[in-house]
Amino acid sequence: MTRFTGKALPLTESGFRAALDLAGLSDPVADAPRLWAVIEVETRGFGFDARRRPRLLFERHVFRRETGGAYDAEAPDLSHPTPGGYGAETAQYGRLARALALCVRDGRGEEPALRSASWGLGQVMGFNAAWLGFGSAAAMVEAMRDAEDAQLRAAAAFIGARGLARALRAGDWGAVARAYNGNGPAASGYAERLRQAHARLVARGMPDLALRTVQAALLYCGFDPRGVDGLPGPNTRRAIRAWRLSVGAGEGETLDETLRDALMRQAELAG
Question: Is a pLDDT exceeding 70 seen at residue 187?
Answer without folding.
Answer: no
